[in-house]
Write a structure and sequence with these properties.
Blueprint (H helix, E strand, L loop, with lengths): L5 H14 L3 E7 L9 E7 L2 H17 L6 E3 L7 E5 L3 E7 H7 L1 H4 L4 E3 L4
Parallel strand pairs: 2-5
Antiparallel strand pairs: 1-2, 1-6, 3-4, 4-5
Helix pairs in contact: 1-2
Length: 118
């Protein structure tokens, strides 16, 4: 596994989210049907300000690792779902209520959960 493999980038994003006290951080290895994306990183927070802090932590950590951010959706201050697209890794940061509503873990129940702790 290379330093900037998709799995390492996903784990780095998960750890960066955890450093900002994100709730229920999950890394999912996506099934073969997701041709472009290998991993989803999903986390949530209780308040907009914490969502922004989590996103800032993730983008800084992945930029330092040399990962290229392709797309950033949900930049506004009151957004309840931010999506960071790194190609083979897509990071989702939700407000808790929206995470329950969209329930990506249930939608992608066939995805394998990956341990991201050191």
């Amino acid at each position: 596994m290379t330093k900037n493999s998709a799995e390492n980038i996903a784990k780095l994003a998960a750890r960066a989210a955890d450093e900002k006290k994100a709730d229920e951080v999950r890394v999912l290895k996506m099934p073969e049907v997701m041709t472009e994306t290998e991993y989803f990183v999903i986390s949530s927070a209780a308040a907009h300000v914490q969502v922004r802090a989590i996103v800032d932590s993730i983008t800084a950590a992945l930029e330092e690792a040399g990962a290229e951010l392709i797309r950033y959706e949900g930049r506004g201050e009151d957004n309840s779902w931010v999506l960071l697209d790194y190609g083979s890794v897509v990071v989702h940061v939700f407000l808790e209520e929206d995470r329950r509503y969209y329930n990506l873990e249930k939608l992608w129940a066939d995805a394998e959960q990956v341990s991201w702790h050191d």
